[in-house]
Design the sequence.
């Protein structure tokens, strides 16, 4: 049975992007169309999630070509959750962009490219074919290249050079890995690969391919030795763009890692040791990198790296509890990282700078906004019972179960480093005696000169995302149920395989 | 034939990696293009080279019996070429823009976004 409705989250964003191109010169219309489209997209994502939750894995065989032959789209709980989180953070970013992105950028198609980017993300989450995943990745990176360079300011294009080079390199490595994989087993369907790779005799070649996949996805998700492009490029574009990058683009790499390493390459002892070492070093170097930064957005960029380590650690331990922790952290991290960059955007709008040396006194001037930011920062650090706490608890517990005590130590150290960084940020930006706003050389309306309605729109996405992360924290039991199902499906893929390949027998290819 | 293509693939990868380690922006882009072509050739190679053997089943049989050219790698390469075309065009436009704004193609000078 082909569930054609899986394609909706992808097709809807394509439609929205095309409609937005139709309003090329009408910037004001674009804002409304994009926000409304993202509201509808959240609706579609909720519907997809509810459908998957009650009916199990949905599978679409494109062109009715049965599983190993055609391109398969699969929506299991993991994919549906990722699509839902993408929709929520894309909604927040599009509301924030409507007031914070300059009209020049909108005039060059900012909103339609944003929709193309989200379409690529949804495609990467929903596809069940490894080459198709490569194609969606390319769609994501070309959209992100354009968003990264849109506006063409000097730091932006200098950051773009690192970003473009590393992402192109990552795709070449990914493509090389796909080539070797195809030469080895002659299939590209991920479920089929899962079965055929398990029978493959040449384990050396399988492991070499696994390493190639790890490097390709590792560059995208910014793990330890491969992350240097991230802090030198993520702080350069406007905050709204940095928010969708920080929230989603690295996590798509983590998603791909979780998918590929649970379905195709089951980690052996060497791989788990390597993953755990890399996770520990990622957490440590990211945290230490964040400590020395005075630019808030650079600090947040390093925090992204630090927290990627938690998810890789969960993958490295490879028990159901550890995967539960990794997936829970992924859910928490997408929402909170998007929100952090939006916070930096608000600070930039209020003070005209994001350098902590020139900031201060925000608490005296805007106590309510400061309280909102405090909630977000507490969720990030994971003060119990807020959202960051639970996944770390599961990870530490899993670490004790698997006797990976060094990794547990690194998780604790990374949490303390995060706490220290956030405390420094809070005291420097909010509690330190205030300094005046810094004059910028470009036309810039400061926050307190805005109309009340615009102020509300500025803060609405922050409130929305903060509410979601509070829900993740206080409704942890429900999120845990979802994460548990995902972790169980990752560990025991028979259900996924049956859903994808079982359909072949009842659904013979049309002539 | 396989031997020549294998050597060629290796040479493309090696040259590509050598080129992206240079300081010049133009060489960086050339290196990425060479790497992309190397990957395409690799897909072509692993799909088994079978010259003059189209994947067509003879009328009197229902399955392939002879060696045939696998069409999938060629479809994959076609897709990959089209995608890398777009990306390379973008990268070339970007380096032109970088050269206009920064006034150099030396990667060691283009590092302002890295300053602490």
Sequence:
């Amino acid at each position: 049975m082909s569930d054609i409705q899986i394609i909706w989250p992808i097709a809807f964003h394509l439609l929205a992007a095309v409609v937005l191109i139709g309003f090329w010169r009408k910037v004001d219309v674009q804002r409304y169309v994009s926000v409304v489209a993202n509201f509808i997209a959240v609706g579609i994502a909720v519907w997809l999630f509810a459908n998957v939750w009650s009916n199990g894995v949905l599978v679409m065989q494109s062109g009715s070509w049965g599983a190993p032959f055609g391109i398969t789209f699969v929506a299991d709980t993991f994919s549906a959750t990722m699509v839902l989180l993408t929709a929520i953070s894309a909604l927040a970013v599009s509301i924030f962009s409507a007031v914070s992105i300059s009209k020049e950028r909108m005039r060059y198609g900012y909103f339609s490219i944003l929709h193309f980017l989200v379409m690529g993300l949804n495609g990467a989450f929903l596809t069940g074919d490894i080459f198709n995943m490569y194609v969606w990745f390319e769609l994501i990176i070309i959209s992100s290249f354009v968003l990264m360079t849109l506006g063409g300011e000097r730091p932006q294009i200098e950051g773009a050079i690192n970003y473009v080079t590393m992402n192109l390199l990552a795709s070449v490595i990914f493509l090389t890995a796909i080539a070797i994989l195809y030469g080895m087993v002659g299939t590209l369907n991920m479920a089929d690969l899962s079965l055929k790779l398990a029978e493959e005799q040449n384990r050396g070649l399988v492991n070499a391919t696994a390493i190639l996949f790890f490097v390709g996805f590792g560059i995208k998700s910014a793990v330890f030795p491969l992350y240097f492009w991230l802090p030198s490029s993520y702080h350069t574009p406007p905050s709204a763009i940095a928010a969708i990058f920080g929230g989603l683009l690295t996590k798509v790499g983590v998603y791909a890692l979780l998918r590929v390493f649970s379905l195709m390459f089951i980690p052996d002892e060497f791989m788990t040791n390597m993953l755990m070492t890399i996770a520990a070093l990622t957490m440590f170097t990211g945290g230490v990198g964040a400590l020395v930064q005075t630019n808030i957005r650079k600090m947040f960029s390093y925090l992204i790296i630090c927290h990627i380590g938690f998810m890789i650690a969960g993958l490295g331990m490879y028990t159901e509890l550890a995967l539960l922790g990794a997936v829970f952290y992924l859910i928490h991290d997408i929402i909170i990282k998007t929100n952090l960059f939006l916070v930096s955007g608000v600070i930039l709008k209020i003070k005209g700078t994001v350098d902590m040396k020139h900031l201060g006194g925000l608490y005296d001037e805007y106590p309510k906004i400061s309280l909102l930011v405090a909630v977000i920062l507490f969720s990030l650090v994971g003060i119990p019972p807020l959202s960051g706490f639970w996944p770390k608890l599961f990870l530490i517990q899993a670490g004790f179960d698997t006797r990976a005590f060094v990794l547990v130590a690194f998780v604790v150290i990374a949490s303390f480093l995060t706490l220290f960084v956030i405390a420094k940020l809070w005291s420097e930006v909010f509690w330190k005696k205030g300094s005046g706003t810094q004059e910028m050389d470009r036309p810039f309306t400061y926050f307190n000169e805005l109309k009340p309605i615009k102020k509300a729109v500025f803060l609405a996405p922050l409130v929305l995302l903060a509410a979601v992360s509070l829900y993740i924290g206080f409704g942890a039991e429900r999120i845990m149920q979802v994460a548990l199902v995902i972790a169980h499906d990752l560990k025991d893929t028979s259900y996924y395989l049956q859903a994808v390949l079982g359909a072949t027998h009842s659904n013979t290819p049309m002539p | 034939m396989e031997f020549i293509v294998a050597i060629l693939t290796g040479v493309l990868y090696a040259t590509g990696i050598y080129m992206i380690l240079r300081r010049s922006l133009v060489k960086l882009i050339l290196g990425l293009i060479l790497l992309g072509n190397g990957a395409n050739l690799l897909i072509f190679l692993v799909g088994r080279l079978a010259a003059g053997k189209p994947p067509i089943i003879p009328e009197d049989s229902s399955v392939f019996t002879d060696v045939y050219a696998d069409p999938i790698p060629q479809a994959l390469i076609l897709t990959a070429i089209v995608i890398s075309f777009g990306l390379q065009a973008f990268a070339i436009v970007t380096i032109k823009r970088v050269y206009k704004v920064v006034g150099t193609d030396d990667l060691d000078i283009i590092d302002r976004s890295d300053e602490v």
Summary: The longest helix of chain A spans residues 154-185. The radius of gyration of chain A is 22 Å. The CA atoms of residues 71 and 336 of chain A lie 33 Å apart. Chain A has 20 helices and two strands.
